[in-house]
User: Fold this.
Amino acid sequence: MSRDISNIYFMKKNIYIITPETAAQRLDTFISLNSYLTRSFIQKLIRQELITVNSRKEKPGYRIKADDLIEVSIPDQPETILLPEDIPLNIIWEDEYIIVVNKPPHIVMYPAVGNRSGTLMNALISKYKKLSSIGAPLRPGVVHRLDKDTSGIIVIARDDASHYNLVNQFKNREIEKHYLALVSGSLKEERGEIKTSIGRSVSDRKKMSTITRYGKEAITQFEVMERFQSATLAKTRIITGRTHQIRVHFASIGNPVLGDKTYGRKTSLNVGHKTININRQMLHAYSLKLKHPAGNEIMEFSAPIPDDMKEILEELNEKSGVI
Assistant:
């Protein structure tokens, strides 16, 4: 026996009875099409005899037959298993190809060290049985991401073909992503473009920076929406999609995103006789325009400004006025 399952127990067991309509598929292909597990992980379970056909071990390429009984035992390993959790979701659009979600602030996209549960993916896998296998087991269907404290629109792929299509759209810069950024101070120009390289910081590997040895081109366009005495609300579009791009770019020109504890550390504003506390970075992905991966029609989605950002804008308007 090849399995090494000491010190673990089975979280759940999936059982499938093959119908004539699904017969003749490869064993690993069938399971990947009917679960959120990747082909590579499925093959690992087969090697460990945690997947059986009629109580027997079979190879990943075994062609399933009508009435075959397939048992899939999934070990409880938090590092590799995405646990379904009943977390409320704000779904903007869904069909059999994509899901568009309005992500609230303070929620992580997918499990990682320090955040094993309570993520957007835990919620999605609870609501939707099948997502694209790409990125699984912890990031099935994830085509792009938002930081924990950034709110707004995310698109998730439900099948591999849609996933590859969306990835290519991002790669070819065909998808338009617009953000609202409330930044510190006054932007010098009404509209402009920030174009630099972005890569790992030379002084702190946990941070991104425009001062880097191995950077990639990053382009952010912006347009001022409102000016306040101590802050500026800007509509931004990222042409490229580098990690922390908007946050790094605005910090590099001396106007960090308000509430950004990593790149600006400006977490409060003194307006008149009042201090406005800012508990997270004021960055919201409010608009996404793409070509539907199946029908090719142009679709545009928008998400309203979240309450915490709206309240800060209202306070700025009341206390300092729009310039």
